[in-house]
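Tokens in:
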């Protein structure tokens, strides 16, 4: 029987800490503002943006909402970002991804000032993470580190295996585990014998975007398993990249889906917004 890592409870604890900080700041006349930009009508993005604004409200962070039509030109979006970069009353800027076809995502993300890049996607912040300098860290992998630490799971000296090498999760995850003195291996779709590698993991972080891909045959007895995936299964239920029913009996601790990593992403976004005025 694995211990369940409760992302909902841990994310609430993080948000309550942030709320207490923003109240302290408000008493000194300091406010925190996040500008959220959504282009188009992607239903999943609309839900994510709504949840981010709700979390801002909970944490005492002011949110400014920019909902632009799908036919918005790249130039217009870049102009809005420039305007927000220049505004002293805006601390963080978030452009919800994916962007509609015809808009160059890299150009847009590069335009956000690294000092306001609360998603941690700007090359300057990615570079800072890789050389151990302070900067904004991508929210999902930062949330995984918080889940581990707040569950009392030691990272230092552990064999950590990351499955997936995306810019948003896999790569920054590897950097963060390394920063915590883990021994880190990154695997991906071309890894020759994936099972042989994942079986070595004391801490296994799975972010490959394939529903229920990792079953017990990939997992060492007693491993900690963190599932970053979220999918709607054929049965209509939400599931992760990990086959929970198969893995739970062999793991020592595991994140559920939903209620594991997901809630931590938004909590860490709130943390990044707060640090835009505190650090
Ligand atoms: N789309 C899916 N995940 C994210 C995220 O973390 N940030 C942004 N901006 N867009 C996303």
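Residues out:
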């Amino acid at each position: 029987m694995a211990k369940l890592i409760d992302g909902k409870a841990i994310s609430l604890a993080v948000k309550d800490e942030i709320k207490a900080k923003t109240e302290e700041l408000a008493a000194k006349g300091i406010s925190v503002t996040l500008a959220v930009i959504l282009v188009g009508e992607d239903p999943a993005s609309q839900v994510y943006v709504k949840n981010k604004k709700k979390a801002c409200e909970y944490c005492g962070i002011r949110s400014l909402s920019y909902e632009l039509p799908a036919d918005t030109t790249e130039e217009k979006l870049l102009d809005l970002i420039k305007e927000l970069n220049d505004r002293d009353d805006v601390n963080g800027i978030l452009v919800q991804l994916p962007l509609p076809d015809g808009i160059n995502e890299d150009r847009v993300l590069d335009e956000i000032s690294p000092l306001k890049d609360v998603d941690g996607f700007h090359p300057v912040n990615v570079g800072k993470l890789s050389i151990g300098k302070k900067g904004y860290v991508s929210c999902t992998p930062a949330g995984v580190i918080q889940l581990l630490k707040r569950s009392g799971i030691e990272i230092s000296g552990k064999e950590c295996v990351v499955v997936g090498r995306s810019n948003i999760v896999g790569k920054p995850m590897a950097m963060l585990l390394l920063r915590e003195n883990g021994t880190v291996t990154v695997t991906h779709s071309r890894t020759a014998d994936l099972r042989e590698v994942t079986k070595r993991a004391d801490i296994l972080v799975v972010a490959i975007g394939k529903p229920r891909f990792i079953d017990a045959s990939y997992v060492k007895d007693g491993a900690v398993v963190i599932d970053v995936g979220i999918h709607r299964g054929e049965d209509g239920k939400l599931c992760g990249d990990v086959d929970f029913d198969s893995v739970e009996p062999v793991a020592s601790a595991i994140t559920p889906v939903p209620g594991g990593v997901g809630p931590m992403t938004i909590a860490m976004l709130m943390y990044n917004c707060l640090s835009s005025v505190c650090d």
